[in-house]
Amino acid sequence: MVFADPGEALARATALLDAGPAPLHASVAHQVIGIWQRDFGDLRLALHHLRRARECAARAGSADREADVLATTGVALVHAGRTREGLAAFERGVARGGGLTRARVLYRRAYVWWVLGRHREALEDVRRAVPVLRQAEDVIWTARALTLRATVHLALGAVERAEADFTAAEALWETTGQEHDKADAVESRGLAAFRSGDVPAALRLLDEAEERYARLGTPTFMLNIRRCEVLMAAGLAPEALAEADGAIGKLDGIGGQSTRKAELLLAAARAARLAGDPHTAIARAALAVRLFAGQRRTWWETHARLVLTEARHAAGRGSGRLVADAAAVAGKLASFGAPAAPEASLLAGRIALDLGWTADAERHLAVAARSRRSGPPLARLTGWSAQALRARAAGSARGVLEACRRGLDVLDDHRMTLGASELRARATEQGAELAALAQRASLVSGGPRRLLVWSERWRATVLATPPTRPPADPELLSGMTAFREIAARAEAARMEGRPVVALEREQRRLERAIRSRTLHMRGEAPGDGDRFDVDRLLAHLGDETLLVELAVLDGRVQVLLCGRGRVRRFEAGLLAEAEREAEHVQAGLRRLAHPGADARLPVVEAAGRRLEELLLGPAAARLGGGPVVIVPPGRLHRVPWALLPSLRERVLSVSPSAGSWLRARETVPPPDGRHVLVRGPGLATGGAEVPELAGRYPGATVLEEGRARVPGVLRELDGAALAHIAAHGTFRADSPLFSALRMADGPIVVHDFERLDRSPYRIILSCCDTARFATVGADELLGLVTALLPLGTAGVVACSAPVNDAAVVPLMLALHKGLGAGLSLAEALRDARAALPGDALHQATGWAFSAFGAA
Fold it and tell me: What are the residue ranges of helices labelled H in 217-340?
């Protein structure tokens, strides 16, 4: 019962002891309390009850009872870090027990061998236990043994064997009432899905397991560790770090298992390293190494040493000693048959290369490169990374490009199994090194054209295909409705000065639930996508339009000027300096959004001139007089490009990638030419441009006041030719897909737009901060505009800074005047800026808006 209904088992065992039972029954009761405390509570209390259980078994004269308690005690001692004593308890238990009891003892010793990372011993004990358990028709213990054997197979990288055992165990569990074990089986299937490369299924199964554990009221430390692993593979390292740290705090609070604490510290160290915090990673990994060493868990200790070495390298501590450490770790991991061995060899080779030790580097990288041919996607990616570094060391640019192409193809296929745009974006981080290697090699071997191809190869890839449509999931839909209602109530409370803490807490809970369900979506599109073609781009640009793609190599901006049949390269300034200058400009625009800040205008204009020098360099003088398309790196997405002197008075559009601009250019507008005008609540001007625009577009659908509700707005936006939305915009840096436009019944968020069959062909967002994005992955952007572009929108006008609502009105009216005359969004926005009054307030408003895409 302790694994079917833990709380009820604890209550009954306590009641039995209160009744003064016979020694045999008292032994069982103390053992049940010991198991509960060992797995869900305080290990010190667990060991106290297990000692009492063994004393009672001895008084009862039952050798089998004593053997069974010794096995439970052995597990508890190992989890407490007292490995020598725990293994000794098992030796006595195996000797004392016979038949079925002995098989159960062997199963639990196999579990301990797995905890210790001694997988061959674990498989041997399970091999001896399973036939006896099956012969006795002991369904529960047979299912446990099969689940354990599957878990050991996973640790050794034998995914197919593991899946077969998990399937057999799950069939047995369905015939029992062991709810905790059933939850554990779901969790284990989540781990198997992850090992086979199916991240969405892994997240779904782990969430399902957590719900089952929650119904039982039991802690989930092993699940926390496994979820951390999946989150890291999904590019969500900061969330994995938060999960691991939270679980460590809970474990310390109940005096829980030392073994689990060490594993959680290892997960936290890996997450911190991937999140770009090597010093935190070093601290956590060093503590994990000490705990694992004290627990005699060599397999785990070696994995912790790998993370410690990786973190030290990331902190800039390259040395011959570090090469030796990485090589030693690689050798040990290989002897264990651990799938992480190629990572360690890659690390040793990378550090050796940094030191100029080419012979040593070649030896280690050759070992790591073997993993490129088989295994899960991320293991093959490690192998291709090693192969690319080998080719670079050998001076073969062609070899570098081939290895990078093959590695990024593997990652493409992996990304396309992910349905959620957020996961696709974050997964690109794992290809950042390959993309950078290819860019450097292409510059050496192929000139500007090849550099353009490789800049596009790993830029804004999420926009290359539409995200998977969220399923018609009743729970997801009801969660979205509840989220809107709570968000609207919270906003109303804030405006009235009422407390909002409880409402904000519930809003965050609903956001987590919605996001969790969207992350479960599997991808549907094939991995090949639409390959970028330079000649096709140049044909569309013609002789008048120039496309300026900004690549970044070794921290410096490379300007690729495309048009008039060729691609030219110019070198500009340092990216870090440009980022700082862009922040100064944003601060200036925020101040200019308020009347009376005219004195700041010359300062902002001077910053614009400095930005031009840093971002365009000598290319600024080669732009001619025609239209310009700017393709910036993700980290420069907040630059107000119209502020740069050479771009200020020209037709200017911005695109996340050249490929995205091409797709927008080739997008066909819908045949019915439907117009939709939306006016949300709470605007200082009341969305004053909307009534006048309604007069200009006689057949337009106008949604305002109570009619501007999310379901109706989405219904009308779907497939529209032109949409104009005047509403307050909110950018969420912490959760960009919850960036929102405020409607009458609450926020409309990015997740809502992703439900559209086709987003409007042109959309104008006369709202603050609608063109702000979160930079994630290698060079990806998450936000409102980037959600619309792959869904059928060919052009967007949006704003990258807070603006003055009153100053927006004349800009929008002038913009629509140009559209009515047949101009594109970029042309109409250029003319609208020129028509504004010359004061600082209106000039800053014009600069804050950009045209995205090609419509």
Answer: 221-233, 237-254, 258-274, 278-294, 298-314, 320-336
pLDDT digits (tens, 9 = 90+) for 210-268: 999 888 888 888 899 999 988 888 888 999 999 999 999 998 888 888 888 999 999 99
Q: Are 156 and 114 in contact (CB under 8 A)?
A: no
The angle that helices 63-79 and 23-40 make with each other, rounded to 10 degrees, is 20
What single string gives the DSSP state of each residue in 727-761?
A: --EE--SSSGGG-EEEETTEEEEHHHHTT-SS--S
- String of DSSP letters for 498-513: ---HHHHHHHHHHHHH
Torsion, CA 446, CA 452, CA 455, CA 456, rounded to 10: -130
Nearest to 729 by CA among 762, 687, 778: 687
Report how far apart the first and last C-alpha atoms of the chain are (Å, whole number). 66
Is 544's pLDDT higher than 60?
yes
For 30, how many CA atoms within 13 A lie in the half-sphere containing its CB? Answer: 26
* Closest among 778, 763, 675 to 726, alpha carbons compared: 763
SS3 state of residue 780: strand
| pLDDT for the residue 463 | 61
Paired tokens of 528: 């090949």
Residue 289 and residue 596: Cα distance in Å, rounded?
Answer: 60
Mean pLDDT of the chain: 89
Q: What pLDDT score was predicted for residue 665? A: 92
The pTM score is: 0.79
Tally the C-alpha atoms within 13 A of residue 75's C-alpha that lie toward its C-beta: 23
